[in-house]
Design goal:
CATH topology of the largest domain: Rossmann fold
Number of helices: 13
CATH class of the largest domain: Alpha Beta
Strand content: 5-15%
Strand order of the largest sheet: 2-1-3-4
Number of strands: 8
Largest sheet: 4 strands, parallel
Shape: globular
């Protein structure tokens, strides 16, 4: 599914930043040579990530041997309303490694990268790495909530760094191994929760945390038409909204996973109905909360889900 992040950001990139770069094309050779210098050991590896989720993981693997720019990094920013900037375009022109989500979530990265004339950048696409395919015509692109996928991406980040800076390849592998151990602990926690709560009904406003919920064995009872409409920024049919609200009045679900970064009348109505009927609400986000790492964020998400299920 193509998210609003893709649609709005792609429009901003093509309408604004690309024109700026085209007008300043004389800077392209310098940007390319800068990236080449980084790759040959002239400084830290320049990395650009589409969001701070992938940026944090890239920084954890690289340590002080990398310099990471996350295009979307404000925890108060709605990712769906991102607007491309000349600063981000410049960062992409100098990047040795680019980590994007893929799956239609952040296509603006590819658009901006093509305009940056940096064909030698190593591009890591998380959805492609995951091997996930669309089911029933729909692909849940929020793969950073899927820990096995994140583990694969971490491994490929370490490999890319090692090729660019062979002298530190062992350090990158060690950093990745430490992070992988933490990810496997999260997988074990999901398994523990699954042993107790598999089959319990839950609801969502968007598919953002769905991989995590499914790994616990929880069943999403939200009408697909509702969550797809919210994700696409389209109107929810009145009948579909009523079906969704009935999940709470009928106590058909144990929790509501609510995307705090995308709100509107329909999601507010769902939130109100859940609270009015004593259904636990678990706030989720698409980017890192302030002060969190990826692992601390996902640890907190799992703890919130566990508390909601236990209640």
């Amino acid at each position: 599914m193509t998210s609003r992040l893709t649609r709005l950001a792609w429009t901003a990139a093509t309408a604004g930043v690309i024109l700026t770069v085209a007008a300043c094309s004389s800077t392209t050779p310098a940007a390319t040579s800068t990236a080449a210098a980084v790759r040959s050991g002239g400084g830290p590896i320049a990395v650009v990530a589409s969001t701070d989720v992938w940026g944090n993981l890239a920084a954890t693997v690289g340590g002080d041997a990398v310099s990471v720019t996350s295009i979307i990094s404000d925890p108060n920013q709605d990712p769906h309303s991102y607007e491309a900037s000349a600063q981000n375009q410049l960062a992409l022109s100098k990047a040795a490694v680019v980590v994007e989500n893929g799956g239609g979530y952040d296509d603006f990265v590819d658009t901006m990268l093509a305009a940056a004339h940096n064909p030698s950048a190593v591009v890591l696409n998380a959805v492609t790495i995951s091997g996930k395919a669309a089911a029933g015509g729909q692909l849940n692109e929020h793969v950073w909530y899927d820990f096995p996928t994140v583990e694969k991406v971490v491994g490929q980040i370490a490999d890319a760094y090692g090729r660019l800076d062979p002298a530190r390849a062992d350090t990158f592998r060690q950093n990745a191994a430490g992070l992988t151990a933490q990810l496997q602990a999260l997988v074990q926690r999901e398994a523990q929760l699954k042993a107790t709560y598999a089959g319990a009904g839950v609801s969502i406003t968007e598919p953002v945390p769905l991989y995590l919920l499914q790994a616990i064995g929880l069943v999403n009872r939200t009408p697909a038409e509702f969550s797809h409409a919210i994700e696409d920024g389209t109107d929810v049919a009145p009948a579909v909204l009523q079906q969704t609200l009935a999940l709470y009045t009928d106590h058909a679900v144990r929790l509501l996973a609510y995307n705090e970064q995308t709100t509107g009348p329909e999601t507010e109505a769902v939130l109100k109905a859940a609270r009015a009927n004593g259904v636990a609400v678990v706030p989720v986000t698409e980017t890192l909360p302030a002060g969190d790492t990826y692992v601390s964020w996902m640890t907190a998400n799992l703890a919130a889900v566990a508390a909601a299920l236990a209640g």
